[in-house]
Automatic annotation (TrEMBL):
The keyword Transport applies. The lineage of its organism: Bacteria, Pseudomonadati, Pseudomonadota, Betaproteobacteria, Burkholderiales. It is a multi-pass membrane protein. The chain crosses the membrane at residues 29-46, 58-76, 88-107, 113-131, 143-163, 198-223. This is Potassium channel family protein. It is found in: Membrane. Keywords: Ion channel, Ion transport, Membrane, Transmembrane, Transmembrane helix, Transport. The keyword Transmembrane applies. PANTHER family: POTASSIUM VOLTAGE-GATED CHANNEL PROTEIN SHAB, VOLTAGE-GATED POTASSIUM CHANNEL. Residues 149-220 form the Potassium channel domain. One of its GO terms (biological process) is monoatomic ion transmembrane transport. It holds the Pfam family Ion_trans_2.
Length: 263
């Protein structure tokens, strides 16, 4: 079989000997799996807020588990060592089990076990989605990172506006999202409902990470400008020393020609 370099399309584990078929399957199932993971976020709040029938959330959990399972199987069947690949994909296997367990457990905020399972699954889903989007999150460029941070804050602001009754406008939601993501916490607006409090946990994890990327990009620009200035100074001094050495060599050759063979 034709061997290719390990793919970085999706998943935490990458086969060491990936063929063309496995690579195609990973690329083919990347976006359906990501879409299913994104749908589990509103499924979590559907059950938490109890504004919609819980069978819808159950169907979303089962659909996400099914897509993850099918994607793993379609990739593994093209590999020489499928069992080793499945053992390395602990996160996907844990998500499949977590989604199935979330679908089977009764949806109730009064049940510590049910809430803990759903929170754990939501955290794993967030990690999985961030890892899938890592090539887009770390592609660099200050303008791109600023646009990404703005998009994340807008999403979080709209989420607070929908979940928190004290947030009267989208502007208040954006302000609460920024203060939460930046871990400032002025206290003028605070999450009061269980849904908003849980949402604020994900806002801190996602928003703080994006803001850290922006800060790191700005620091990298400053460090890069300082390094360039130092390099220019070193090159200028090196050119001056080379010019002085060249002048000395020229003077020595001139003295040797003027002194003649006998000298």
């Amino acid at each position: 079989m034709t061997r290719q370099a390990p793919s970085r399309a999706w998943g935490l584990a990458r086969p060491t000997g990936m063929n063309a078929g496995a690579s195609r399957e990973m690329l083919r199932w990347r976006w359906p799996v990501l879409a299913a993971l994104v749908c589990t976020i509103p499924a979590f709040y559907i059950e938490l807020l109890e504004q919609l029938p819980t069978p819808l959330a159950t169907a979303i959990y089962l659909l996400a588990a099914g897509l993850l399972g099918v994607a793993l199987w379609r990739v593994a069947r093209h590999l020489d060592h499928p069992r080793q690949y499945l053992r390395r994909n602990v996160l996907d296997l844990a998500l499949i089990g977590g989604f199935v367990l979330s679908a089977l457990l009764p949806a109730s905020t009064d049940s510590p076990l049910s809430l803990a399972v759903r929170l754990g699954v939501a955290m794993l889903s967030l990690v999985r989605m961030v890892w899938t989007l890592r090539p887009w999150l770390t592609r660099g460029g200050l303008a791109y990172l600023l646009l990404l941070a703005f998009a994340v804050l807008c999403f979080c602001g709209v989420g607070f506006w929908a979940l928190e009754p004290r947030v009267q406008s989208v502007g208040d939601g954006l302000w609460l999202a920024f203060t939460t993501a930046a871990t400032v916490g002025y206290g003028d607006i605070v999450p009061s409902t269980p849904a908003a409090k849980i949402f604020s946990v994900f806002v801190v994890l996602l928003g703080y990470a994006v803001l850290s990327l922006v800060t790191a990009a700005i620091a990298a620009i400053w460090v890069e400008s300082t390094e360039r200035r130092i390099e220019h100074d070193i090159l200028r001094e090196l050119h001056a020393e080379v010019s002085a050495l060249r002048a000395e060599v020229t003077a020595l050759r001139s003295d040797r020609r003027e002194g003649g063979p006998g000298r």
